[in-house]
Amino acid sequence: MQFRDFSLLVRDTKVRGFAEGLERGELRASRCVGCGAVHFPPRSDCPTCWSGEFTWEPITGTGRLITYTLIKVPPRHFAPDLTQRAPFSTYVYAPTAVGLVEMEDGLRVMGWVCGVAAQNLHVGMALTPKPEVLDDGRATIVLKSEGC
Amino acid sequence: MQFRDFSLLVRDTKVRGFAEGLERGELRASRCVGCGAVHFPPRSDCPTCWSGEFTWEPITGTGRLITYTLIKVPPRHFAPDLTQRAPFSTYVYAPTAVGLVEMEDGLRVMGWVCGVAAQNLHVGMALTPKPEVLDDGRATIVLKSEGC
Amino acid sequence: MARVGVVGIGHSRFGIREDASLRELAFEAVRSCINDADVPLSDVQSMVVAIASDELSYALQPSAQVGDYIGFHPKPSFRAEAACASGSMAVRAGWMNIASGLADLVLVVGAEKMTEASTPDVTEVLGRAGDFLWEHPFGMTFPGYYAMIARAHMAKYGTTEEQLAAVAVKNHKYGALNPNAHMRKEITLEKAMSSFVVADPLKLFDCCLVSDGAAAILLASEAVAKKLRPDPVWLSGLGLGTGSLALAHREDLTSLEATVEAAGQAYRMAGIGPEDVDVAVVHDCFTIAEIVAYEDLGFCPRGEGGPLVEHGETCIGGRIPVNVDGGLKSKGHPVGATGVAMAVEIVKQLRGQAEEGRQVPQADVGLSHNVGGNGQHTAVHIFTRA
Amino acid sequence: MARVGVVGIGHSRFGIREDASLRELAFEAVRSCINDADVPLSDVQSMVVAIASDELSYALQPSAQVGDYIGFHPKPSFRAEAACASGSMAVRAGWMNIASGLADLVLVVGAEKMTEASTPDVTEVLGRAGDFLWEHPFGMTFPGYYAMIARAHMAKYGTTEEQLAAVAVKNHKYGALNPNAHMRKEITLEKAMSSFVVADPLKLFDCCLVSDGAAAILLASEAVAKKLRPDPVWLSGLGLGTGSLALAHREDLTSLEATVEAAGQAYRMAGIGPEDVDVAVVHDCFTIAEIVAYEDLGFCPRGEGGPLVEHGETCIGGRIPVNVDGGLKSKGHPVGATGVAMAVEIVKQLRGQAEEGRQVPQADVGLSHNVGGNGQHTAVHIFTRA
Ligand SMILES: [Zn+2]
Ligand SMILES: [Zn+2]
C-alpha cells in the first residue's frame, strides 16, 4: 500500500478542518469547547473533559527550536527513484533539516527547516512555523528563519 | 508492498527445492528423514521427530476433488487493471475454478482446475495435479481433467 | 479460579465512517464505555487493544494511537492480535491481566478502520489471513476459503444455497433493529439468492460487510466489580483453539477444529453445556460460517445447521437465538473491533438492555464465538449473570 | 503473588538469513528451547507469539504460521505486539497466562523476517512506529526520531558523538564473542566516528542492524518449574509503560517516560532497586537509546549516561555490565524476536552459561529493557535466581 499524502490523511477525520486551514495558509490548533485546552497536533476529542466539540484557532508568532535532525537516508515515500508518486512533500526538502519548535504558549510544531545552512542550526534559535504549498500543489509545514 | 510471486516466496527458505522442482515440471512433496512422514505443502522441519533433514519426492497420479470454488472477485494481485505487475499466475485463470484434490496417499493439493466447465465440476471427480509454466514464464499448479 | 466481571460497555456506530479515523472511532467506544461504567478513566490501571491489521492502520504498534488519543499513557497497554478474532484475544488478555493479580480494572478496546483502503486492497490483506504461501497464490481470497468450506458442507450434508441465504435474511432482520449496525435494512430470500456471485457458491449477501468501527469493555476483579455495580456480568468461560494454516490440512473441511477445541475449554471452565446457552453471537463472516458454528458449538448435531436456521430455530423464540444484533453480516465487521463488540452485545442481552424486537427474554447465559481467518484461531467466551 | 519460572531458552542465529523463512526461523528457536527444557512440546499448554509487522510478514495473524509449523494446533496461541517491544509483550502475556491459572507451561516465541524487504521498505514500515499522521510526513524515519532525542540530549547535557560511538564499540566488542550475533566483529572508535550520517547526529554505526531471527522461552508455574529443573530463573518483576505517540508531546525529550514508568513498576514488584542489578540488556536500537536507558533505569544520574559508557562502567568489571550479548547493535534486531531474545540472554547469564569473555561473574539479578517505536511502549523485566 502506498503512503498517502497528509491532506488526505486528515480529510477523513473529525480534524479535516486542519487540512482546509493548511490550504488557506493557516496553521491551526484546536481548542476544546469544554475545558479550553489547546492542542497541536489538533484533536477533536478531549481526554480531559471528554468533550467532542472543538474550535479552530491559528498558530501565529515565532518559536524556539528545541531539537532537529538532518535526514540523510529518506524513507521510501521520499526516495525519488523508488516511487513514481511523490506524496505530501516532495523530496526537494530532503535532506533539508527537520525541526521541532516550541511556541510561547508551549505548543510544539514539527516541520521542515527553511533558510538555514545545516552548520548554523542550533537548539534555541528562533523559527516561525508556516504552512507552504509546494509546486506539486500539496501543502506542508515549514519552519522559517527571519528573512526566509 | 507488492505481492511477490510464488517461486520467489519459497526461494528464500529451506524448501527452495520445491521451486526448482516446479520449474522442471515436477510437483514435489518432502519426506522426513527422521520419521518418514511425507508433507505437502512441503516442510523442512518435522514437528513429530524434530528432524531438519528432508528429501524430495514427486507427487504423481490422480486424485479426487474434495472441494472447489470459482473466484469471481479476484484479490488485487490478480486484478489486471489495478496492478501492472502480474505475479505467479496471471489473471487469465480467474475466474476459472480453484480446487483441492486428495491423492491416494492422503496428500492434498490446491490448484487451478483446467479443462472442466464450471457446471460440470463436482466433488469426487478425478483430477491430476501438475505444475505448469505460464506464458509469462512463471510456474503454477494446475489440476487437470482427463484429456486436458 | 478468580472471577472477572464486565462493568462497562461501549460501542461506536459501525459503518463507512468517513467522519472518523481509527483513533477517533476508538475514542467514541471508550467514552461510551466509561460513561456506562461511571468510572473515571484515571482509575483504570491497564489496557489491551485489538487491531487486526498494521497495514490497514498505516502503523506499527497501532495500539499507541488509541492509548495516546484517549490520554492513557504512561499506563500499561499492548496489542493482541489474531486477525478477525483479535478482539477476543484482547478480551482474553484482559481477563488474564486481572486474574493474574497485575491489575483489577482493565480496559479492552477493539477498533478497525477499513474503508479507507480500496476493495481489492482489503481483499488482498484479508486474503493473507489464510496460507499466503501455499494457498493464496491460487487467487484464493477470504470468501474463496469459505466458499470451499460451503461446497464441502453441501456435498457432505446436502446443505442448500437457500439455507445459506436464510442466515443472511435472519441477521438483516435483527440488524435493522440495531442502531449501531452498518446496514439497517431487511432483505428477502429472493434478493439474497439473486445477488451476484463473489466466490461460488457464496453470493454478495452471503458475505459480511467491510466496516469501520470500535468497541470497548471494562473488566474488573470480583471485589471491584461488586463495588462498582449491582449487576456485573461475569466472564465465566474462556476457550481458545487453533487450526492448521492451510485449509488443505483440515481433516474435516466442514468443521473448524479450532472452534471445537475452544468451545470444549469454555464449556468446561464455565461448567455448562451448549444446552444452557440462552443467547449467542457467532462469527458469521460468511453465512456458511454461522451454520458450521451451530454444529461446532453443539447447538445442533453435525449436518443439521442448515435446517436449524431454515426452521427459524436461531431466531428469538427458537431453540437458541443467534446473532440478534445483526451479526457481522448486517451489523458489520471492523475486524479488530468484532470480538469486543460481541462481548458488548452479550452483556447488553444479559442486562436486558437490547433494543425492542431483538432482546432475548430471560437471558442468563450468553456465548460469543469469534474466528480468525478461516479457522486458524477461534475464541469462545461464556458470560453469565450469576 | 504467583511465581513464574523460565525453564527453557532457545535462540536462532541472527543475521541475513536467506536460508530460512519466518516459520523456519521460529522452528529453530523452538527446537532449541524444547531441547534446553527437556520437555516434549506436547506437554506445553499454551503459546504467545511476538511478530512486529503484518506487512513484513505478508500475513494477517502471522502467529498462525508459527503455530502451524511447529505443530501446535489445536492448542491456544495468539500474538502480542508493540512494535520493537513485541517480544516483551509476549513474555508479559505468557507470565499472565500462568499467573492467572489458565496454564502452567507456556511457550513464548518471538520472530521476524526483515531482510526480504528492501531497505527503503523497512525504513518506511519502521518509520510508521512513530506518529504516522503528524510527524512521519516530514520525512521522519525511525533514526530521525532518535536523532532528535540525541540532539536534545547533547544540547542539555553536553553528551558527545564520541560517547555515542563508545556504546557501539562496546557492543561490537561483546557481539564478536556471541555465536548468535549478526555482526561478529569489533569496531574502532575511529571507524564508528567516520561512518556516514544516517540522520544527523546519528551515523551508520549508531544504528542497529536489520536482521532475521527468532527466540523462544518456556515459562512454568512455580510448582512445575521446580519439578522440571533445579535451577529455574524466576521472572520476578514486570513493568510496562507507555508514552505519547508524537515525540513533540514528550515533556522531556531526553528521557522516555515509558521507561521510567516501566522500571518503577518492575523494581517495586521484584522488591529491588537499580543498584541490585548485576547484568542488564537494554534497547540500543540506536546508541543514544542505550545512554538514555542508563539514566531512565537509574543506573546513573540524569545526564551522566555519556560519561558512564565512556569510562567503561557498562563493560564487564564496571559498575553495571550492559548488553554484553552485543545488544541490538551487533547481535541484531529482528524486531519481534528482540524482547524474547533479551530474556534468553539474561537467563543464560544468570545460569552462568554465557560464552567466554562475555559472562558476568556472579550474576544473580538481571534486567531487560525493551522499547517499542521511539518510546510509545517500554517493558522492563527483572529476572532473579532466588
Ligand atoms: Zn476538554
Ligand atoms: Zn520426522
Quantity of strands of chain C, as a count:
11
Q: What distance lies between the first and last C-alpha atoms of chain C, to the nearest angstrom? A: 15 Å
Averaged pLDDT of chain C, please?
A: 96
| Multimeric state | heterotetramer
Low-confidence stretches of chain C: none
In short:
The complex is a heterotetramer, with two copies of chain A (148 residues) and two copies of chain C (386 residues). Helix content of chain A is 9%, strand content 32%.
Structural key phrases:
heterotetramer, A: 148 residues, mainly beta, OB fold (Dihydrolipoamide Acetyltransferase, E2P), 2 domains, five-stranded mixed beta barrel, three-stranded antiparallel beta sheet, 2 helices, 8 strands, 9% helix, C: 386 residues, alpha/beta, Peroxisomal Thiolase, Chain A, domain 1, nine-stranded mixed beta sheet, two-stranded antiparallel ribbon, 14 helices, 11 strands, 38% helix, 18% strand, binds zinc ion
Describe this structure in words.
The complex is a heterotetramer, with two copies of chain A (148 residues) and two copies of chain C (386 residues). By secondary structure, chain A is mostly beta strands. Chain A is 9% helix and 32% strand. In chain A, the strands form two sheets. Chain A has a five-stranded mixed barrel. Chain A has a three-stranded antiparallel sheet with strand order 2-1-3. Chain C has helices spanning 22-37, 54-57, 63-69, 86-99, 119-127, 142-157, 161-175, 189-193, 222-228, 257-270, 287-296, 305-310, 327-331, 335-351, and strands at 4-11, 46-50, 77-81, 105-112, 197-200, 202-203, 213-221, 233-242, 279-281, 365-372, 377-384. Helices cover 38% and strands 18% of the residues of chain C. In chain C, the strands form two sheets. Chain C has a nine-stranded mixed sheet, with helices on both faces. A two-stranded antiparallel ribbon of chain C has the order 5-6. Chain C has two domains: 4-117 and 211-234, Thiolase/Chalcone synthase (Peroxisomal Thiolase, Chain A, domain 1), CATH 3.40.47; 119-209 and 239-385, Peroxisomal Thiolase, Chain A, domain 1 (3-Layer(aba) Sandwich), CATH 3.40.47.10. Chain C is an alpha/beta fold. The interface between C and D is large, with 66 and 66 residues. Strand 4 of chain A pairs antiparallel with strand 5 (197-200) of chain D, so a sheet runs across the interface. The structure holds zinc ion (2 copies). The site of one zinc ion has 8 residues of chain B, from loops.
